[in-house]
User: Fold this.
Amino acid sequence: MAATADEALLGGRGGLSTAAVSGARPPDGSISLAVNAGRSPSPPQPLRGDTRMEWGAQRPRRRLTVLSGPSGVGKSTVVAEIRRAHPQVWLSVSVTTRAPRPGETDGVEYFFVEDAEFDRLAAGGDLLEWAEFAGNRYGTPRRPVQERLAAGVPTLLEIDLQGARQVRAAMTDALLVFLAPPSWDELVRRLSGRGTEPPEVIERRLAAARVELAAEKEFDITLVNTSVRNVCRELLALMSVAGGTAPER
Assistant:
């Protein structure tokens, strides 16, 4: 991604229940895909009450694909694999007020800005969505997303639940994909196994994960992350990108 093409938006840098995951989780490493009630993955318009998946020969128009799910479910891993194997998929780069971490590059992982600049972007309507997490704010510049969609570029946005809800309100035809863990115990294992955060932080993340899992029904599609490779294939198919594999009926 050419970061300089999007930096013009950022002020001339030159605009974020202890519910069990629904459905049986396959034990064999296969991927499970569920069409959530009241949503349809078939562009261009959602068909209310119709949960059939149509994989016809006609190429659908591009629409924004949003990937969300609880912390620790593997969203970043899935996105990194798609970027590696399918560079034609454009991943929106968020703007954030947090400081860069070692190894991060401005315009690659994030656009790093001061609070005043973030305030300006939010007040001017230059952010498609934004949210605050752990004392820092994160947002999606609106114009680069609109430009890629208008150009027919497959566009992917990885955000949290709060941001996904804002995108749903701003872009009603966006496809919202929920990435779920195979089970609650597996999610706890993944979060606890990182070994990079103190127990109180893990507890906060688990509490947030319960809320996020309970919101699964708000999404159009659920993919269960038992295999990163399979999740990537089916996510690409939902985006109508070559290399994707439509789920078996």
Observations:
- The first strand starts at residue 32 and ends at 35.
- The mean pLDDT is 80.
- The two ends are 35 Å apart (CA to CA).
